[in-house]
Amino acid sequence: MVTLHYQMESMETSWRKYHWENIYQTKQLCEVSWYEQVPETSLQLIEETGIEKNAAIIDVGGGDSLLVDHLLQRGYKNITVLDISAAALERAKKRLGKDSEKVKWIEADAAKFNPTEKYDLWHDRAAFHFLTDEIDINNYIHTATNNVNPGGTVIIGTFSDGGPKKCSGIEIKQYSAQTLCEKFNVGFEKIKCFNVQHTTPFNTVQEFVFCVFKLYR
Questions:
Q1: What are phi and psi for residue 151, nearest 5 degrees?
Q2: Alpha-carbon gap, residue 172 to 169, rounded angstroms
Q3: What is the pLDDT of residues 77-134, one digit of tens each?
Q4: How many C-beta neighbours within 10 Å does residue 70 have?
Q5: Cβ-contact 197, 164 below 8 angstroms
Q6: pTM of the prediction?
Q7: Are 156 and 128 spatial neighbours (Cβ–Cβ below 8 Å)?
Q8: Which of 93, 104, 169, 187 could form a disulfide with 80 if both were Cys (CB 3.0 to 4.6 A apart)?
Q9: What span, in angstroms and rounded, lies between the C-alpha atoms of 116 and 63?
């Protein structure tokens, strides 16, 4: 049985946690703008890495995203989902049923996360851009740098500089390919960056930028 790990909370973490618990307690999966029935971009990028099916994958800010469902269906066996919201994780576990026992679930703030293992692939779609404080941003990057195995992959998807400036009622930090690469400029090699148009459940379009990095140290 997979245990749910908890991390210590700061005041800022408490505020973020309250916000996201409220979101996941009041909105259904298909009622949030980031919803994807099939996370095609993420799945394609993960498969392009060629990682083994037993490689350690973490989905940071995964919430109750369907990415974990698709990864399990494709045979990946060592998956961790991290989110600040216990409600989001519980919804994902309930949806997966018995298969939830194949996944490691971590309830933590991505900016304060203290991993207990290292990963071969670090995936984050739409979590990093919610970090607007430079200390939190640097903590996040430091954690990724020190907890992805050498030669491992980091996939980051954020709102682009042509995308929304707010999401779920709070400010976000927009990125271009250049500014995202500037953040991940120590220890990482850029593999590629590109923009993606995401159509929300409300038939609006949000522009994301995705960057794929290799950790070379």
A1: 85, -5
A2: 10
A3: 999 999 999 999 999 999 999 999 999 999 999 999 999 999 999 999 999 999 999 9
A4: 18
A5: no
A6: 0.91
A7: yes
A8: 104
A9: 20
Query: How far is CA 106 from its chain centroid?
Result: 12
Chain position carrying tokens 């997979």: 2
- Residue closest to 162 by CA, chosen among 149, 183, 177: 177
Location of structure tokens 């990864």:
71
Statement: residue 4 has pLDDT above 60 = no
SS3 194: strand
> At 128, which amino acid appears?
F
d(CA 11, CA 128): 19
pLDDT at 11 over 60: no
Bridge pairing between strands 103-107 and 166-167? unpaired
DSSP assigned state of 151: E
Distances (CA, A) of 52 to 2, 48, 104, 158: 21, 11, 18, 26
**What domains are defined for the chain?**
4-215 (3.40.50.150)
| CB distance 49 to 153 below 8 Å | yes
At 109, is the secondary structure helix, strand, or coil? coil
Q: Using CA atoms in the order 49, 216, 177, 16, what is the torsion angle rounded to 10 degrees? A: 90
